[in-house]
Structures are given as C-alpha cells and as structure tokens.
Amino acid sequence: AQSVTQPDIHITVSEGASLELRCNYSYGATPYLFWYVQSPGQGLQLLLKYFSGDTLVQGIKGFEAEFKRSQSSFNLRKPSVHWSDAAEYFCAVGRTGANNLFFGTGTRLTVIP
Amino acid sequence: DTGVSQDPRHKITKRGQNVTFRCDPISEHNRLYWYRQTLGQGPEFLTYFQNEAQLEKSRLLSDRFSAERPKGSFSTLEIQRTEQGDSAMYLCASSSTPSGANVLTFGAGSRLTVL
Q1: How far is CA B23 from CA B9, B71, B109, in A?
Q2: Which of B96, B102, B110, B113 should be substituted to probe chain A, the one whose Cβ sees the most A Cβ atoms within 10 Å?
Q3: A100 and B48: CB-CB below 8 Å?
Q4: Which of A80, B40, B63, B108 is 20 to 30 A from residue A110's alpha carbon, by CA?
C-alpha cells in the first residue's frame, strides 16, 4: 500500500536561513511525487512534481526537491526562506492510472524574523 | 479560467442536519475529486468522477455521504444526518490528465462545523 511520512510536524526557521522538509514514501514501483503548500484558510497549491528523469526538480517560489530512490525520499529545499513561506507543506504520492493521491500529515513551517 | 470554486466556504450546522457542498472545477478538466481534511492531517481521498461517472466511491466515509456530478461539470457532496465527527475541511480538486500522473488543482475548500 502507498504511504507518505513527513516526520517533522512543525519546523521553525529564521528568515533568510535555508530550509529542508523531509518526506519519505512507501510504494512498490516508481511513484509520482508532489509537494503542495497550504496557507491558512486556503486550498493546496502545487509547488513541484516528479514524474521521471532528472531527480532534482525545480518548482515555484524558489523551491526544489530531490528524489532519492535508495532512501525512498523526496525532500523539499529552499536556500533562503522568506516570511511569506510560512504555511503548511504536504508531500503526496501517486502512480500511473491511480485515481487519487496519498498525502502525508504535513509540516507546518514558521518563519521568525 | 478562475480555478476550482467551492461553495460555501464555511458552513455551521447542528448535528442531525443535512449539508451540501458544491464544487465547480476548471472548465476543461474532466476529472473531479473530493477530499476531506481534518485538523492536523493531510487530505484524505473520498471519491472521484471522470466526467459524470463516479468511478471510485469506496472511500466515502459512510452511507451518509454521497456525491454527484450530474452533467459532468459541477459536483455536489452531501452529508446527511451530520455528526460532530464530520467537522472538517472538504476539498475539491480537478485534473485533466487522461493517463499517467494526476496533477490536481485544488479549490479553497468548504469548512464544516457541526455543533
């Protein structure tokens, strides 16, 4: 069965500092991987996705993620965090022909001045 | 294209009442999904339509939950005889990918509070 683990419930970083949010997945084949961001009271916005090919993918708002098959991970990174990045971040996994995505429980990011 | 629209954004109801949420997907998207999100959790898949056909509904939480997409455009999610445990954010998403990975575009959600 597919599953997604986001081990960090809450992360606090200083503005301008680098960020890495962890995501581990469990799936028997090559998954499709996604990162979504959710601001308070808002729906989910797609940050980036991995389907195949280059394991380092670039997304919007300066985010990137790296797919590591050997570690079953798809960690999200940003070199310099802005106060507007404070939000909830969700990792999700899907597969070819699947009807839905499976989401992790999310990581809440707080940015301090 | 105004994205995925959901209405109402907030609904407060008393236990035992019926509620209905509406979702208007992106116009060219033929797939529509309903998810539920409770506090501190990620979205949980409920059901899925391709055009007007409901192809997956086994994840609906109970027989009190039902969804329709009568003309393959907008969709409604109805919860009958609401319970306090139904309090959650109900998210709608749509996509147009005919095969392969689904890239879902989400609406802002409908928040339900059952008193």
Answers
A1: 11, 13, 9
A2: B102
A3: yes
A4: B108
SS3 B18: coil
Contact B34, B75 (CB under 8 A): yes
pLDDT in tens, chain A (113 residues): 778 999 999 999 999 999 999 999 987 677 889 999 999 878 899 999 998 888 999 999 999 999 999 999 999 999 999 999 999 999 999 876 666 888 999 999 999 99
- Residue A110 tokens read as 């707080």
Looking at the complex, does the CB of residue B98 fall below 8 Å from at least one CB of chain A?
Answer: no
d(CA B82, CA B84): 7
Q: In three state form, how does the secondary structure of chain B look? A: CCCCEEECCEEEECCCCCEEEEEECCCCCCEEEEEEECCCCCCEEEEEEECCEEEECCCCCCCCEEEECCCCCCEEEEECCCCHHHCEEEEEEEECCCCCCCCCEECCCEEEEEC
The set of residues, in sequence order, having a beta carbon less than 8 Å from that of A28 and lying 6+ positions away, is none
CB-nearest partner of A103 from B6, B43, B103: B43
Number of neighbours of residue B84 by Cβ within 10 angstroms? 9
Structure tokens at A42: 């808002």
